[in-house]
């Protein structure tokens, strides 16, 4: 018996399996029995006669063929499934293509800016510039804060102006020392963590508090010191506290 | 005589060119009425009287904040904001105004301010500022003393 080989295509395998099935019909109806430790070929329930040598060869061949047939049947089943997937239902393929197209479209949407949308496209001094996203704005704000802090630290800490202004600002924050304002001058100092003046700048840190209150405190603080410190920058830290760098009028 | 005529014509031509030059035409001085402003705190809106040109803090004892929009054009530089204010009932009360530069997502900002004692006649006070980039916007906020008025404000072009 020639060993069975996979040739090609489901049709060829089908044909070979059919031939084998016809050539060894015994395997359809017979079974290998294990009788007292010595397996025997059983036909219609009766042990067939024959010499032990031939019987052993036949049994081995049958076992080998059975294994081959089982392997072929499995391969055939696999091919059938593959064939079914490939040509069975084109709707599935179309669905897959459509899904991929949607994914591609979504990816393209993330990288392209809709130039017809004025919210996404701005013009600066004649050159195209895209609106920065939140991460870029946060980075820019952090850079500005770092710069303000380093500039402040470089300033002289014990100048006459710094000492005198720190006293004045503290007075403004604790009481309404400026009669020019009315109804202002609440105890703002209770909201401030630190007050420090150097060179021509005062730095005030206000710890995180309720958003509306924080806003009111900032405005009040700025208004109370407007005649001393007329410009500056304000930064919010990651923890939510506010740091004001307030510059003297000359700046 | 001929030379004089030619000189005169030349001067007129040069003046015409200067007047029509894009640099001058680009200056954009915007003036807004004080009535453009509104109470900064919604709960205090009833303390204001908004006229056809000005806004007045009608509270008798407390100062009040107003907020006013500033419209700026992309690609143009602005040198500052001038506020016209007065205190019809007298003096000795200070008006203070701020221009805040903020970003769209803005937790950080820069500011410039000016304060001045208001009088019965309208006074002008200017805040030097400059829009930093097109990702920033500007707003004007003023603390008006009791009975203080903000008559108008001007957004000034950057003149050099």
Provide structural commentary.
The complex is a heterodimer of chains A (251) and B (160). Chain A is of the alpha+beta class and 251 residues long. Chain A has 3 domains: 9-88; 90-123; 134-248, top7, de novo designed protein (2-Layer Sandwich), CATH 3.30.1710. Helix content of chain A is 51%, strand content 19%. In chain A, the strands form 3 sheets. Chain A has a 4-stranded antiparallel beta sheet with strand order 6-7-9-8, with helices on both faces. A 3-stranded antiparallel beta sheet of chain A has the order 1-2-3. Chain A starts with 8 loop residues before the first helix and ends with a strand. Chain B has a single domain (29-157), classed as Galactose-binding domain-like (Jelly Rolls), CATH 2.60.120. Chain B is 14% helix and 45% strand. The chains are: A alpha+beta (251), B mainly beta (160). Chain A binds chain B through residues 122-126, 129, 131-132, 134, 137-138, 140-141, 144-145, 178-184, 219, 222-223, 226-227, 230-236, and chain B through 40, 59, 61-63, 65, 74-75, 92-94, 96, 98, 103-115, 117, 133-135, 141, 143, 145-146. β8 of chain A pairs antiparallel with β8 of chain B.
The named CATH superfamily of chain B: Galactose-binding domain-like
User: Which pair of chains has the greatest number of interface residues, and how are they split between the two chains?
Assistant: A-B, 34 and 34 residues
Portion in helices of chain A: 40-55%
- Quick one: how many beta strands of chain A? 9
Specify the oligomeric state: heterodimer
Mean pLDDT of chain B comes to: 81
CATH topology category name of the largest domain in chain A: top7, de novo designed protein
Structural class of chain B: mainly beta
Integer tally of domains of chain B? 1
The number of domains of chain A is 3
Order of helices and strands of chain A: HHEEEHHEEHHEEHEE
Number of helices of chain B: 2
